[in-house]
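Researcher: For the record, we're logging two predictions in this thread. I'll number them. Prediction 1 follows.
Model: Prediction 1, sequence and structure:
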Amino acid sequence: MKINQLSVFLENKPGQLSEPCRALAKAGINILTLSLADTQQFGIMRLIIRDWAKAKAVLEEAGSVVKITEVVAIEVEDHPGGLADILEAIEHGGFNIEYMYAFTFGREDKAVLVFRFDDPDPVIKMLQDNGISVINGVDLYEQGQ
């Protein structure tokens, strides 16, 4: 139920974001979703990609520093309060969220939340025990088609 996410480290200067995106495009690799965070000196582009191993190799060949991180994707009702309900369950379980981002597909009023936890396995169990839909990689990639 964990999904591999690529974290690409970038200098915080013009042109650095387009280089890895261009490398993926030339290799015919589609990005399902991404998130970008920055500091004054560097940025981190986090990517969910179907063939993450191929993407990692392409990016490293292009000179990028890439780290693989396990994240948890959760399907949630896309309506006011959907996120709050998920966050309440996570907080009630005593789990800390390192970061998160979300995206929608416009399918059946659902959104996907991507979470990073320091230890995802007990969080996954708690979510499933509470009837919260944790998405496996195959299901997530199929939604993006």
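Researcher: Logged. Prediction 2.
Model: Prediction 2, sequence and structure:
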Amino acid sequence: MATFLDIGLKEEYRSDEDDLIEDFFIPCFSKCVEYDRCIEYLSINMIKTVFDAYDNFRQGAAKMRLIAGHRFRPADLDLLTVLLSKSRNPFEKRGIKDEKLRLVRKAFERGQIELKIGISNDIKISDTFSEKLGIYRDSHGHVIAYVSTAKSSFDMKKKAFESIEVFTSWGDATRVKRKMQIFERLWRNRVKYIDMHGFEYAAKNGYLKYWKEWLMHE
């Protein structure tokens, strides 16, 4: 089975020099068994794309842990509410016939996708969780960690101008270990200034908001 060592990664990718989707994201997603991501603005389109395009995710062989900020585009927040609803037939009630979304809902139900929302707990800190960290693991124990400048998860249709700094377990083990520790501390709610909540808790307590900049362009 192919591993990350077969990709031929660069240390940095930039939108003005590289095709970030083709050169970085597609090779990493296609070979990973675990994907961890911190992002300020989460897009449902990203999750749909991954589960539609890659056999390892679609067939349940790869899992995803996501940490997002509490502001969403209205359409994304509405779809997340449906995807994580405990209602038996939320799609029928909303008139949604998107089979890709059904696939994503099943992935949430079986724990293949896990989501936490980062909420500031200190007035000294901006009210938006804005960590931009990603971690891929393959079946051979190799790890790729990256830090991007993008505020939102990638979109196959709308490419943002961004740069990505890449670290590998075989080339920079110390830094990759540090990135993995940072994600785990966030995931386990062991950092200052930010609390991690499940989506249902965040929704019930009024933490989830619309991102006004996106709302104006709906």
